[in-house]
Design goal:
By secondary structure, the protein is an alpha/beta fold. The longest helix is centred in the last third of the chain and has 19 residues. The relative contact order is 0.17.
């Protein structure tokens, strides 16, 4: 008999979550609740958690990046730095405004932007050629050294946008990662550590940026009692029902992070004796949320090890996933400028994301690791 599929990152909806959503629906149906009140509450909770002044909840993390670019006045032809090892949604909004991505490689230890490579590139730029923004990505919950990134960005007067879509609950030097940068964005997609089944947020301490994002994300309505528009807007608002779910889920973020970190620790314990296999760990400056546990397989020891493990798990109805294919290898970005060392391609070819749902139990983790060990014996 086929066992139930084990998914890569599956959410858990508790009775508290269900009750929170039902209460909003009941109140909306009875006309006893302002439709915006759950949204305002969720924004306030997120602002308090991250110790930032302004949060704008939105329909997706991608929408948040788009609005961040508009708030920064990024225009057609402007260049923007993006790490090549990330999901395509980090870079897609650049095309919405006509900006040009410059893909930079990542650090082998952190899998996040190679800051030495970044600084070398910026030093070679004429002032007129400097990028208009730097987008840094917290990959699978891990961060780069944000103090160093801030120093580099300040030296060249380039604003930093943090794509923290994967790092809600992570900390950089005891500070929430999404509080870094001029603007940060979050995602509450179905597979994220906190989910509203879809949605995102823009975080900033800059009031003018928040006002621009809020207005443009709400169809750019001018302040009249009729519908008047002096600029182009977008329908990027979050539903109050989703906001209610977000409030409920965010309330237990620390528990969710602890469970994910425990899963990663279990992988390290059960797979740690395999020479040539490494499980992701925190950098010295961070406490990752361990959104996805990842392994790297030394290709000299395990030839095609990534594919072997993936196939073995899939045959047992267990979902694992390749690391993001670097953006400079994506057909849609084939003509873009790149600054590469080969690290991102190596990571893609030798690494794998393992099941990381916080609902995984010890027996399931033991089973997963047993399949991995067995699959590598013949490689």
């Amino acid at each position: 008999m086929t066992q139930n599929r084990i998914y890569l990152s599956y959410p858990e909806f508790t009775q508290v979550d269900i009750q929170a959503v039902n209460e909003v629906i009941i109140k909306l149906n009875s006309r006893n609740q302002d439709k915006n009140s759950p949204i305002e509450s969720f924004e306030n909770d997120l602002a308090k958690f991250h110790n930032v002044s302004h949060v704008v909840t939105l329909s997706s993390g991608t929408a948040a990046i788009h609005l961040a670019l508009l708030a920064l006045k990024i225009q057609a032809g402007d260049r923007v730095i993006v790490p090549t090892l990330t999901f395509a949604a980090t870079a897609f909004p650049l095309s919405y405004v006509g900006a040009i991505p410059i893909f930079i490689d990542v650090c082998k230890e952190t899998w996040t932007m190679d800051l030495e490579l970044l600084e070398q590139y910026l030093k070679k730029c004429k002032k007129s050629e400097l990028p208009k923004a730097i987008i840094s990505v917290d990959l699978f919950g891990r961060t780069c050294d944000y103090d160093e990134l801030s120093r580099i960005a300040a030296d060249f007067d380039v604003p930093v946008l943090i794509d923290a879509a994967e790092s809600l609950g992570s900390e950089y030097k005891n500070t929430p990662t999404a509080s870094q940068g001029l603007i940060s964005i979050l995602s509450f997609n179905f597979n994220k550590i906190v989910t509203t089944t879809g949605g995102g947020a823009l975080l900033t301490n800059d009031e003018s940026i928040a006002k621009i994002a809020r207005k443009i994300g709400n169809q750019a309505r001018d302040n009249f009692h009729w519908y008047e528009h002096s600029e182009i807007g977008y329908n990027y608002r979050m539903s109050p029902i989703l906001a209610a779910l977000g409030i409920s889920q965010l309330a237990r973020i620390e528990t969710l992070v602890e469970k994910r970190r425990s899963i990663r620790d279990t992988y390290s314990k059960l797979l740690g004796d395999i020479f040539g296999l490494t499980v992701s760990v925190d950098s010295k400056w961070e406490r990752s949320n361990a959104w996805l546990s990842t392994i790297n397989l030394d290709n000299k020891i395990f030839f095609h090890g990534r594919d072997t493990v993936w196939n073995s798990l899939e045959k047992e109805n267990i979902e694992s996933r390749f690391i993001w294919k670097p953006l400079h290898l994506q057909p849609v970005f084939a003509s873009c400028q790149t600054i590469l060392t080969g690290v991102s391609e190596e990571i893609f070819n030798t690494s794998l994301c393992l099941p990381s749902s916080h609902t995984l139990n010890q027996n399931e983790l033991v089973r997963i690791c047993g399949i991995i060990k067995k699959s590598l014996k013949g490689v």
